[in-house]
Amino acid sequence: MSTSSCILEARGLRKSFGGFVAVSGVDLDVETGNIHALIGPNGAGKSTLFNLLTKFIQPTAGDIRFKGKDITHAPPAAIARLGMVRSFQISSVFLHLTVYENIRVALQAHGRDTWRFWRSERGLHRFDDQVHELVCQVGLEPLIYTRAADLPYGRKRALELATTLALDPELILLDEPMAGMGQEDIERTSALIRSLGGKHTVLMVEHNLKVVADISDRITVLRRGEKIAEGSYDEVAANEEVRSAYMGGAHG
Ligand SMILES: Nc1ncnc2c1ncn2[C@@H]1O[C@H](COP(=O)(O)OP(=O)(O)OP(=O)(O)O)[C@@H](O)[C@H]1O
């Protein structure tokens, strides 16, 4: 694969915890504009790899490049400024604020003008068009003036995604975006993630294989810390090693 078409590249990533190797020499190429899924059975190393890529933990060996820049030792805040944002951490939504206010705060933060937060109401309304655009994008129009604390779980996650999109990231990292969602929210969120492809790049860890099949352009399969397959859903689903990995345990 040509490196120029890849927004995120990892080479030889390794993470050991004491004597235990959780991620072992993984190479990963995430192509610009793709929806890319990381899958594998329980304990395969998906979360560890995701935490390495998002800089929550440091690798024992290997390196990571974002848009060609070495970010192996960059702190998470620095990579966010470069355009790589990890979403779906509900804790980053302000529960006492409404949907409208949460998205406006995210837009203000992105504009780096948080000091203006306390300025006149009129000044704050300059974000209204963008707030409405994002609210519509994630399907929260009827709940725009609802406090985040009062949103159902799936809608809270939609709000989290809207606040992430407010930062206009080139690469969005989603950690199990469908976890805990009912079927209706799964369908809505799948359609939303699918719609991000092309304009944004998405890398997600996801357990729901139907969702992975429906929305991913490319899939990387891990087992026991190693990459065992990569390709389209049909390609990885036909791979013998992948089939035996999933037959051996619960889907993960
Ligand atoms: N901080 C840690 N200390 C020790 N071992 C760890 C640590 N984090 C993860 N591991 C081990 O590394 C292995 C991979 O874990 P990881 O959570 O990355 O897998 P996973 O594919 O995300 O699994 P699941 O689908 O169950 O969430 C597991 O055996 C786990 O016990």
TrEMBL record:
GO molecular function annotations of the record: ATP binding; ATP hydrolysis activity
Lineage of source species: Bacteria, Pseudomonadati, Pseudomonadota, Alphaproteobacteria, Hyphomicrobiales
Protein known as: ABC transporter ATP-binding protein
Gene3D superfamilies named among the record's database cross-references: P-loop containing nucleotide triphosphate hydrolases
Pfam families noted in UniProt: ABC_tran, BCA_ABC_TP_C
Record keywords: ATP-binding, Nucleotide-binding, Transport
SUPFAM superfamilies according to UniProt: P-loop containing nucleoside triphosphate hydrolases
PANTHER family assigned to the protein according to its UniProt record, in alphabetical order: ABC TRANSPORTER ATP-BINDING PROTEIN, CONSERVED COMPONENT OF ABC TRANSPORTER FOR NATURAL AMINO ACIDS-RELATED
Origin species: Neoaquamicrobium microcysteis
Presence of keyword ATP-binding: yes
GO cellular component: plasma membrane
Domain ABC transporter stretches: 8-249
Source organism superkingdom: Bacteria
